[in-house]
Design a protein that fits this description.
Oligomer: single chain
Helix content: 40-55%
CATH architecture of the largest domain: Orthogonal Bundle
CATH topology of the largest domain: DNA Cyclobutane Dipyrimidine Photolyase, subunit A, domain 3
Number of helices: 19
Radius of gyration: 23 Å
Amino acid sequence: MTSVLWFRRDLRLRDNPALHEAAGDGPVVALFVLDPALLKPAGAPRIAFLYRSLRALDEDLRSHGGRLIVRRGDPVNVVPKVVKEANASAVHVTGDFGPYGSKRDEAVEKALGDDVRFVRTGSPYAVTPGQLAKKDGEVYKVYTPYYRAWKDRGWHSPATTISGRVDWHTDVRSDDIPKDPELPATLELPDAGEDAARKTWKKYHDNALKNYGDERDRPDLDSTSHMSMYLKWGAIHPRTILADLGPGDDTYRGEIAWRDFYATILATWPESAREYFNPELAGMDYARADTKAFEAWTKGETGFPIVDAGMRQLLAVGWIHNRVRMIVASFLVKDLHIEWQHGARHFMKHLVDGDLASNQHGWQWVAGSGTDAAPYFRIFNPITQGQKFDPNGDYVRRWIPELREVEGKQAHTPWELDAPPPKYPEPIVDHKKERQVALDRYQAARAHSSS
């Protein structure tokens, strides 16, 4: 019997359990639905990378006698229509545990009716949300015990490749994959697709992984793997990466666990994508987001070099080093006193690797309202953070042309020069003063919450 394999966040042919299940039914229709509900909030960089990933998947399918069927519209209408056109008896998917995705899948399953099976196999995670719980059945809210249980449980080995033995059903109408949206001339995107993901991972594994534990906080050294954008669309599965890690790679292994942990938190508390996981700080006094200060932050024109370098990197490549993500987030929430949701939304618009669970809960961590949250009184000093993690100023000079002629770590305090660079702005706030304002507002919110 013919089945439909509905691709979502699993844009690959290797290590794809849903493909195995679909191929076991008989001929397979490879389908991707361009869902306006997901495309609308995404920025041009992530959409462009998605389209390029779809083209790469289509090329892979064609090399195996198949092709990707692309349709635009609401999946509740599109998927049953494709099923009818292909005379299919089942729809196979990789499970989706996000707030929108889980509800969408329930609606599609209902629309298919009793005569068409809706089969969920696997997930985009090493350990699927819902598979780990404490002895009392409660979901882990703290990362460290979750990580111990995650490691003890383990994960499946990569699935065997069978793409060359699939009977692809191609006699179904397809829309064209759209042209890339217009991108800034300076924006650089990495190669997309499964082959690019595996090549990127192999190069990193063979040459730089050994330095990850020591250098991961150094944006000037660019010692991270850049695999997050491939994991976002499932061009590679995390278990494929985990299978290559050795006993000495625990720090990197832990980053995969954080991704699984945040996915579990979002699946269990879907409202945490928009609302405070810890409501204690929901009543804090925040500034409006439609201010010149917020605009300066988005453009990388705050006068604090490490902050501006990070925000300009975001605009230039659709990605920011993780340490710098924390620094710029802390600056927005605790120096500019702007609520975390505004920053999270800006990130999701511009990040190629924008993942709702990791992004929102990363912001909540910095804001002091999430799981394992940094205490609110831990306020990153943007000057000392820059001096510590970009000690020679190389990262700052790369992304801020106005500071290219400033030598060494002086790039983090250009206002101290006898002749400050004329085109670079002065700091828009006094960090020491705003730190105290943040602490005072925090104490007021706690007092109000407990009263």
